[in-house]
């Protein structure tokens, strides 16, 4: 698990913009601006849709860029963005490399059954590339509202 103040792991991932443009996002290029990086298990599933739509609806409240990360393909992300009018970039991490670097992959329990996969997690990374906030095992519903309150208290 990453600690507040630690340097965020570096990454480069392919993604898709809200307008449908393919792009590559690298953490080095994001230095100098704060952003949210959130990991979710799967496009267009109930919890992930709830969380993504909450980010969509509260993007202005957060005041910083948001990047969603899952193992889904770019094509899946494109459909997810279009279906739900998402207004932020989705990134593809098919090998879970970035999720593992952030501690957002591992053992989890769902309905009493243990499995391995994406652990719903959110990170706020400051202008210097350091972890300003690290939230693991978040609940999809209400998460973005709680995150907005915490972000407003940070000096990013």
Q: Would you give an account of this structure?
A:
β4, α3 and β5 form a beta-alpha-beta unit. Helix content is 30%, strand content 30%. The longest helix has 17 residues, at 46-62. It is α+β, with helices and mostly antiparallel strands. The chain has a single domain (12-143), classed as Glutaredoxin, CATH 3.40.30.10. It has a seven-stranded mixed β-sheet with strand order 2-1-5-4-3-8-9. A two-stranded antiparallel ribbon has the order 6-7.
Give the number of DSSP strands. Answer: 9
Termini Cα gap: 21 Å
Helix-and-strand structural type: alpha+beta
- Domains counted in the coordinates: how many? 1
Mean pLDDT over the residues = 94
Shape: globular
Strand order in the largest sheet: 2-1-5-4-3-8-9
Radius of gyration from the alpha-carbon trace, in angstroms:
14 Å
CATH architectural designation: 3-Layer(aba) Sandwich
| Named CATH topology | Glutaredoxin
Q: Specify the CATH homologous superfamily.
A: Glutaredoxin
Q: Total helix count?
A: 5
The succession of helices and strands, N to C, reads EEHEHEHEHEEEEH
Largest sheet: 7 strands, mixed
Q: Which percent band covers the strand fraction?
A: 25-35%
In the CATH scheme, the class would be Alpha Beta
Helix content: 25-40%
Summarize the structure.
Helices cover 30% and strands 30% of the residues.
Keywords:
156 residues, seven-stranded mixed beta sheet, two-stranded antiparallel sheet, 9 strands, alpha+beta, Glutaredoxin
